From TrEMBL, chains A, B, C:
Record-linked PANTHER family: CYCLIC DI-AMP RECEPTOR A (PTHR38456)
Pfam family of the protein (one): CdAMP_rec
InterPro entries: CdAMP_rec, N-reg_PII-like_a/b, N-reg_PII/ATP_PRibTrfase_C
Identification of the protein by name: Cyclic-di-AMP receptor
Keyword field: Receptor
Transmembrane residue ranges: none
Keyword Nucleotidyltransferase appears in the UniProt entry: no
Native organism: Sporolactobacillus kofuensis
Amino acid sequence: MKLIVAVIQDKDSNLLQQALVDADFHATKLASTGGFLRSGNTTFIIGTEDHQVDDLLELIRLHCHSRNQVISPISSLDANTDGYIMHPVEVEVGGATVFVLDVDQFKHF
Amino acid sequence: MKLIVAVIQDKDSNLLQQALVDADFHATKLASTGGFLRSGNTTFIIGTEDHQVDDLLELIRLHCHSRNQVISPISSLDANTDGYIMHPVEVEVGGATVFVLDVDQFKHF
Amino acid sequence: MKLIVAVIQDKDSNLLQQALVDADFHATKLASTGGFLRSGNTTFIIGTEDHQVDDLLELIRLHCHSRNQVISPISSLDANTDGYIMHPVEVEVGGATVFVLDVDQFKHF
Ligand code: NI
Ligand code: NI
Ligand code: NI
């Protein structure tokens, strides 16, 4: 048994959630924020058998896309902007950051 | 040391939280959604000593009940309903999905 | 690779988040509540290389402070107050509860 923790962009979360349901994975969605851009993201925790981990990772990869996004350093940082370049920059955000954890015990009541 | 991740129904979360406090377990509640029905659930993360894991699992089992719930496939799925049976169905939901994880290091500052 | 789960007080979360960005750690913030006082807290999950765990723990320790806080048992508990002492008490809250977990696989898509 593994516990997968996947941080993805909000924009991808509905499609990924539907894909997980279709493939009969049991996922829970946590409200989350942050990462470098502090933009909206969603954290899924998904329990799965060891032999299904590769299929699950492939599903996440397919549904979570990298995107270019223009950010203004002023709006994306707190008041403390000394020393930062102040014109907008384009950065790549997404697609998914995924941690696979070993599960010591799994219970379903 | 273990970290317990428990996904339970919203309806059970206040009673479980009180029970955890009474038993002197230190729990944190995360806002979560989803699972197959996308119904409201709550995720607890709880740190505990190895020798208290069984007591904690029993506490969760006692306070988290399975329930039958009537769902309408239309409201519980997105617009994409092709191929689904459209009349309401009764399904069993809950009680708790619990993952016990090994902790490599634990710190309290 | 390690996954750090850090539960800290809301009051410390903006400073810690900025410090994590400055030090180039990739953190995700989850909305959370609870612990004994049910006061507002924030849960960070942070992925990091093994050799950076000590630096990360030190960063968390530096930015998350214990505080004394006066609580009223009436407002901090549900209706069920039988047997509790009813006058306000001062307790120490914070600073951070941190779990370091081994990561079996890490993927970035
Ligand atoms: Ni799909
Ligand atoms: Ni009870
Ligand atoms: Ni700092």
